[in-house]
Specification:
Blueprint (H helix, E strand, L loop, with lengths): L1 H25 L3 E6 L4 E6 L3 E3 L8 E6 L12 E8 L6 H11 L5 E11 L2 E10 L7 E10 L2 E9 L4 H14 L1 E2 L7
Antiparallel strand pairs: 1-2, 2-10, 3-4, 4-5, 5-9, 6-7, 7-8, 8-9
Length: 186
């Protein structure tokens, strides 16, 4: 008599665990990263790792790294905030053209390219997938805005199969991005 109840409760607890995990992926608790030196602020999931170490480019300010889900994960979702400082003022249209021309390669497929708002300023967003022979295929979102001679860039990439799962979180991060002053340079 108790066995069916145990068998029924056990699958329910597994189902609840998956529902809770799915909810945590789309509705995580967020922390705020502030960098007064570079004049920026952004929210990020409490379960992600924030790091200013090991960044690849000199213009990178901070990286946020999603946790690995299981052993089959090859890489995690990664969001990098960068500031590119130029010696003279540039335009958003000029930077848009530069990036869109760089993406015209045989191994790159542009999925989306459109204007939007970032940090209460006109901006542009591009989503593309890219792969190189012998390397993992990645899906990437780039969002940028221009303030004077600084370009503020948010880049996110992940495995294509995991990308849709991360989009709600990344959108929330991008929407929380603020430029608290536009004089910060690296």
């Amino acid at each position: 008599m108790y066995v069916p109840l145990i068998i029924f409760v056990f699958p329910l607890s597994l189902c609840s665990q998956y529902v809770i995990q799915a909810y945590a992926l789309t509705n995580p608790n967020f922390l705020t990263y502030k960098n007064p030196t570079f004049g920026l602020k952004i929210q990020y999931p409490a379960t992600w790792i924030e790091s200013q170490n090991g960044l690849k480019a000199f213009s990178d300010v901070v990286g946020f790294y999603a946790p690995f889900g299981n052993l089959s994960d090859i890489s995690t979702g990664t969001l990098i905030v960068s500031i590119r400082h130029y010696s003279h003022n540039i335009t958003l249209d000029g930077y848009n053209s530069l990036i869109n021309n760089l993406l015209k390669q045989p191994n790159v497929q542009t999925i989306q390219s459109n204007p939007f708002m970032l940090a209460d300023s006109p901006a542009h967003k591009v989503v593309f997938s890219a792969s190189a022979p012998g390397l993992l295929k990645m899906e990437t979102m780039l969002a940028w805005t221009v303030k004077g001679n600084n370009v503020y860039i948010i880049s996110f990439n992940s495995e294509p199969s995991k990308y849709p799962t991360y989009v709600p979180i990344v959108d929330k991060m991008i929407n929380s991005f603020e430029i608290t002053n536009s004089t910060g340079t690296k």
